[in-house]
Request: fold
Amino acid sequence: MNCLETFRYYKDNPHEFSFTLSEKEKDDAKQKRYLSNLLSSSVKVSNDIFPSISKGIEEVFEKLNIQNNFSFFITSDPMQANAACSVMPFSSNPDIILTSRLVELLNEDELKFVIGHEVAHYHYKHSLYPNHTTASGRVDALNMLNLSRAAEISSDRIGFVACKSLENSLRAIIKIASGLSEKHINFNFSALLKQLKELENIGRNESELWNTHPNFLVRAQALVWFATSIEYKKFSSSKGGSYSLKEIDQKINETINKITGNEIEISNKEVYERALIWGTLKIFVKNGKLSKDEQDKLKNKFGENKISSAISFLKNTNEKSLEKKIEDAFEQAKLLLKSEKNRLMDELKDKASSIGKNNAGILKILSKFANILEDTRIITF
Ligand SMILES: [Zn+2]
Reply:
């Protein structure tokens, strides 16, 4: 079983977005400069110079059953316990840079967690995800950040698989978060859980919403749940497993939402609903009028207030500004996740089929919507 594909966290799904995972343009001069900087500032890990780190790395690749075409470097940084994976465009040889503080802080098994985590970032092509600063608007940016946090959850799972121990993975997380070494730490996961509960009780935290990483408590909790999944138990040839990975993924998503607040879901829902209302109105008024029955249907679904104000807009507007309203709603909806856009198109097709089949005019409207939403499925209704 290829654990990397099976264990990927469900929200870490770039196919839900419109971007393509394409390499940036190759820049030879930049590549040379980068490598030169790396070689002159950091020590490349080899069996000759750092035998125990090198052995740990080999064991990680063996465990993950992937080819080691990576170069590892240790860079002197007495302050930050960090690891980073960087890949130059069009290179199949990624570099992983570990700081001296990280290596000093973690024991060999805990270090495997970090190495596995970084290798997973490369394997999943996380570095090709667009940065949220390139987003078109707030909703798009929030969705991208959610993807970025999801990428960390996936990578932690592979780090855990690589070091083969939940306790070592959690120790690594605690050490990196606290900056403290072995002699201070008494491993007690329920104390961490207590801290997470305290954080959840405070509720939504705006800054977490804009973080590219989930906080360490969420990451620890996510790993503990993952370790009890039926899928992981099967992979590690141990008995039991309380929940399916699908259920675990849901629980993790709920925990993340508690802390980031549900603004992402609310914003997405608003964008979705606006496009659905204006799309449905466009379909319904195709025959020149909005019947009482159609009005009631809309009111039942979206509420009296929203529909009354939409209807009064319809009455007092001209074709051009109605088109603009619809266009705006769909331009926003274009930024929704793909599964949501497909669901939106399905709902619109449903609305269309409720008023009559084989109507060329309606089909034209639907294809225009599908075009904006980048839905390439054939329209049948
Ligand atoms: Zn990471």
